[in-house]
Amino acid sequence: MLEINDLHVQYPKAKEHALSNLNLSFQKGEFVCILGKSGAGKSTFIRCINGLQRPTSGAVIWKEKNIFHLKEEQLRKVRVEMGMIFQHFNLIPRLSVYQNVLTGMFGKRPPWKNLFGIFSKEEKNLAVKMIENVDLTGHKDKRVEALSGGQKQRVAIARALLQNPKVFLGDEPVASLDPGTANRIFSLLQSIHNEYDLLTIINVHDVILAKQFATRIIALRDGVVVFDDIPDNFTDEVYDLVYE
Ligand SMILES: Nc1ncnc2c1ncn2[C@@H]1O[C@H](COP(=O)(O)OP(=O)(O)OP(=O)(O)O)[C@@H](O)[C@H]1O
After folding, report:
1. pLDDT for position 123
2. What is the pLDDT of residue 38?
3. Whose CA is nearest to atom 31 of ligand 1?
4. Helices within the chain (DSSP H only)
5. Nearest CA to ligand 1 atom 5
6. Is 24 exposed, middle or buried (0-12, 13-18, 19+ CB in 10 A)?
7. Which NCBIfam families would you find in this protein's record (predicted)?
């Protein structure tokens, strides 16, 4: 479904590579957690998948095309198929939950419709359904700035779902949340993953969460894959190799 071929990233002026010769293949239905120390290359990797970060060399193959060879407009369409959530939610604080979720439609529509905030009845109904899916119905008209961190991440998940993505990407989506809330967000991501039959790829610092929810764990160290297997095989020895 998604192929990463010989991916190499070196940031300008950096002495070391951020990612080195990554070769990975992902299938629909996989719930993948990316682990690694701070600076291991997790964010860089996630951002390459949907073209937010251009590699120095290598390819991300989606629907048999290297996304880095696509024109900007085609790349935007790819990004619509890859919903993404972030550590700091990336919401518009003064807008309501409902208005924020509706912005998930933006990538799919002509810019003038976005400019004038014109949404069809069907689009509005879908936004309401997604808010229901993430259990925020009672908060629909509240400003996002008045919500807790966990609720904000639910809004971001609903917004990403409105794109009807095939791939769900998360760049440290629970890093700002307490352990209980983080666990509930992962449960939600897991049920959405199953309901919509997605490929999910998430960076996470918490090994326990990764072992609880992932079907596959990939660990990076200094930009290189040092583990790629089922969670049961992520042993204490592997932990030491990744985090020492
Ligand atoms: N914009 C940038 N310019 C230069 N170097 C960068 C940039 N972004 C990341 N790096 C470097 O690339 C390497 C990988 O960074 P990346 O953010 O991908 O790691 P990470 O595993 O996500 O870390 P963290 O868990 O702290 O978010 C690090 O050495 C980092 O300093």
Report:
1. 85
2. 94
3. 39
4. 42-49, 72-81, 97-102, 111-115, 121-133, 149-162, 179-196, 207-213, 236-243
5. 11
6. middle
7. ABC_phnC (TIGR02315)
- Is ligand 1 within 6 A of the CB of residue 243? no
Enumerate residue ranges in the chain where pLDDT < 50.
none
According to DSSP, the residues that pair with 169 across neighbouring strands are 84, 201
Give the Å distance between the CA of 109 and the centre of ligand 1: 33
Q: Is 19 in the pocket of ligand 1 (CB under 6 A)?
A: no
In the chain, what are the domain boundaries?
A: 29-43+83-243
Q: Does ipTM come in above 0.90?
A: yes
Which residue has its alpha carbon closest to ligand 1 atom 30? 39
Q: Check pocket membership of 221 for ligand 1, CB cut-off 6 A.
A: no
Per CATH, the homologous superfamily of domain 29-43+83-243 is P-loop containing nucleotide triphosphate hydrolases (3.40.50.300)
Model-level pTM? 0.93
